[in-house]
DNA sequence: ATACCTCTAAACAAAG
DNA sequence: GCTTTGTTTAGAGGTA
């Protein structure tokens, strides 16, 4: 028997690894506890994202418009020809990464022309999303929020060209996920509909929230190491955005920062219009800044070249827990953007709504240990970032957890504000943004406190 | 070293 | 009988 089996919707086999691991009292690492405490503190200190939005916008954000926009982003990145400078290359396009690192057909340097920031992964590269996330997006993108397996295949094929030429095993994986992951449930087929054999699959509302959380965590990205290795890319240009480390760590983040202020619910379909709307707004914001977005239909890449500062995945997959994610004296890093639009350096305050949104995104993430200990379904995220949200986690597993963890698992439904934060965070996440802002807010608050004390003395 | 998570492969059964 | 769908088991590989 292999490692832990994801919890099955059906009765667990007695020999199942899931039952074995579920019965186990999970190790409660010190780091995890520290993380939990840190996150709790961060949550308190985090500024409210809603401050940046009207009530109407709040409501809009609580809808799934962000998801549709996100899927549009997938389209826009894959079809628009947008291509940011690979962090594996210097501005001149020279390879900066060791040729010996991760040589594979999937290598961005060897593969197709898609950027590592291309969330579709391109034709030769596996998308960064787990199957569970793909299925979730597919189903959520469906008008009725339910799809037969066949259409799920179709959606994935449509949005992720990689699978067009991939071995058919991925379909098996999709079915495997549908079957095993409790977040997905079969819907009794309407007899009037002739969809062929099989059932419609939908998202279990009870676990939809968890799927959103899973989705908003940046999915596992096989190139995170490579991205990290590329952090030495030399400065490019004249625009310096001083932002807290972790807020902007690659080009996608720069884009996504811009994305957040322009979130608007868009028609659920057609995809093209949503895509163009997003792209347009995004381009506007990037070109002029958030205060005065002008029309902009040009390729972002042409005017803005983004360099990376840190590995996105490394820093943020465990933003709070990781000691490396804590901010040092050089909290303010320079992100150089090649642009002739904004020649002067610009400071982005830590407590801007952008960073705040990102911080809430992070703060929503349960401690790694907590996630891990809850036994995973076949729903995925990035490697090591398991989903905290299977039924087993919410129910059966929680019974075996220490009280502290159990409470976390069984926490009551989040408020609208939490949902809104979540949606905002999801957007940021889906656009490639993950940030370690709990630390930032923590440090900000801490710094202010220290300042006050110093003044007092 | 260990536990956990995700993916993949495969076998099998049921349904169309 | 074939194909598709759904379920289950097993193991590999990666991460923390």
UniProtKB/TrEMBL annotation:
Pfam families, A to Z: Forkhead
Q: Which GO terms describe its cellular component?
A: nucleus
Q: Where is this region: Disordered?
A: 1-52, 79-121, 284-424
Keyword vocabulary terms for this entry: Cell cycle, DNA-binding, Nucleus, Repressor, Transcription, Transcription regulation
* Record bears the keyword Transcription regulation: yes
Q: Which residues cross the membrane?
A: none
Q: State any single GO MF term.
A: cis-regulatory region sequence-specific DNA binding
**What InterPro entries does UniProt report for this protein, alphabetically?**
FH_FOXN3, Fork_head_dom, FOXN2/3-like, TF_fork_head_CS_1, TF_fork_head_CS_2, WH-like_DNA-bd_sf, WH_DNA-bd_sf
Basic and acidic residues compositional bias: what residue ranges?
A: 339-350
Which stretches hold the DNA-binding feature?
A: 126-213
Chief subcellular site?
nucleus
Domain (Fork-head) ranges: 126-213
Q: Which Gene3D superfamilies match?
A: Winged helix-like DNA-binding domain superfamily/Winged helix DNA-binding domain
Question: Where is this gene product found?
Answer: Nucleus
* Biased segments, Polar residues type: 79-97, 306-326, 353-376
Compositional bias (Low complexity) at which positions?
Answer: 7-44, 98-112
The entry's function note states:
Acts as a transcriptional repressor. May be involved in DNA damage-inducible cell cycle arrests (checkpoints).
Q: Kindly provide the name given to this protein in its UniProt entry.
A: Forkhead box protein N3
Its source organism is Oryzias sinensis (Chinese medaka)
Q: What are the leading ranks of the lineage?
A: Eukaryota, Metazoa, Chordata, Craniata, Vertebrata
């Amino acid at each position: 028997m292999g490692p832990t089996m994801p919890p099955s919707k059906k009765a667990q086999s007695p020999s199942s690894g899931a039952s074995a691991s579920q019965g186990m009292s999970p190790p409660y690492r010190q780091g995890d506890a520290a993380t939990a405490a840190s996150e709790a503190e961060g949550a308190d200190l985090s500024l409210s994202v809603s401050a940046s939005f009207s009530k109407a916008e709040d409501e809009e954000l609580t809808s799934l418009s962000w998801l549709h926009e996100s899927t549009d982003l997938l389209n826009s990145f894959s079809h628009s020809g947008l291509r940011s400078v690979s962090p594996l290359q210097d501005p001149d396009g020279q390879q900066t990464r060791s040729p010996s690192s991760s040589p594979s057909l999937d290598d961005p340097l060897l593969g197709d022309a898609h950027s590592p920031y291309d969330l579709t992964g391109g034709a030769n590269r596996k998308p960064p999303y787990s199957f569970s996330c793909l299925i979730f997006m597919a189903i959520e993108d469906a008008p009725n929020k339910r799809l037969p397996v066949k259409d799920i295949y179709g959606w994935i094929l449509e949005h992720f060209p990689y699978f067009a030429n991939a071995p058919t095993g991925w379909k098996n994986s999709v079915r495997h996920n549908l079957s095993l992951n409790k977040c997905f449930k079969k819907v009794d087929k309407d007899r009037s509909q002739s969809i062929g054999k099989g059932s419609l699959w939908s998202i279990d509302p009870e676990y939809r929230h968890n799927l959103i959380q899973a989705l908003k965590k940046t999915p596992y990205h096989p190139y995170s190491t490579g991205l990290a290795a590329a952090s030495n890319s030399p400065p490019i240009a004249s625009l310096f955005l001083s932002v807290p480390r972790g807020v902007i760590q690659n080009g996608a983040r720069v884009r996504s920062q811009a994305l957040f202020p322009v979130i608007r619910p868009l028609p659920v379909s057609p995809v093209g219009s949503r895509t163009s709307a997003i792209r347009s707004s995004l381009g506007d914001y990037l070109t002029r800044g958030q205060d005065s977005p002008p029309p902009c239909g040009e390729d972002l890449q042409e005017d803005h070249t983004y360099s990376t500062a840190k590995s996105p995945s490394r820093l943020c997959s465990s933003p709070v827990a990781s000691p490396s994610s804590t901010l040092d004296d050089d909290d303010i890093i320079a992100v150089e953007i090649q642009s002739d639009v904004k020649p002067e350096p610009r400071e982005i305050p830590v407590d801007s709504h952008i960073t705040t949104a990102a911080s809430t995104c992070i703060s929503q993430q349960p401690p790694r240990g907590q996630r891990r200990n809850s036994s995973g379904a076949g729903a995925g995220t990035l490697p090591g970032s398991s989903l905290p949200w299977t039924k087993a986690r919410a129910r059966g597993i929680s019974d075996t957890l220490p009280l502290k963890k159990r409470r976390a698992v069984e926490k009551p439904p989040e408020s609208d504000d939490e949902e809104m934060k979540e949606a905002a965070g999801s957007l940021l996440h889906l656009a490639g943004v993950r940030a370690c802002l709990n630390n930032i807010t923590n440090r900000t608050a801490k710094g202010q406190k220290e300042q006050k004390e110093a003044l007092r003395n």
